[in-house]
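Please, structure for the following, as tokens.
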Amino acid sequence: MVSLVSRFVEDIRTAQAKDPAARGPLEVLLTYPGLHAIWLYRVAHVLWEGGLRLPARLLSHLARGLTGVEIHPAATIGRRFFIDHGMGVVVGETAEIGDDVLMYHGVTLGGNSMRREKRHPTVEDDAVLGANSTLIGAITVGEDTRIGAGAVVSDDVPAGATIVGPKATRLDSDDEDGRVDDDAESTVESPGPAE
């Protein structure tokens, strides 16, 4: 089993590899809230697995306050996971995240049931979850998928797929006062995952 310290070092290297703005290991160590959230999660998860549920929840609560990232300590997260920017991320209790997953700010892995059963998404290896994407329910997002910024996903996604969110709607103005003509509507495709 890989020690927590080894995981922390691996997480620093992962941040450097996945973020072109990372200038060096010291900068990453000190200034990356997504990384800090992952580390605090890793410690909280060990506590949770050891039956220390309240201390685990308190640590995850502290992590949320410090980083703006909420990861339930019972969630399962693989190696080389990286949260870029961090703020607003929510990972629910029964969520499972594979290895080498990249997640941007505002992502939610949320549940759609109040039952005490699997109710959060499973994200397989090498997936990229774009900013503010929302994955709901006990769905599976396949290996090497790309979920676009702002996408709402409530069904399984096959391996290798790219999923983009709702289209933006443009309302044109065609009078001098700048009033919107309700009939002048066109759509603009949403961009792919934030990279």
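The helical segments are 4-18, 25-31, 33-49, 53-67. The domain at 4-163+173-188 is CATH 2.160.10.10 (UDP N-Acetylglucosamine Acyltransferase; domain 1).
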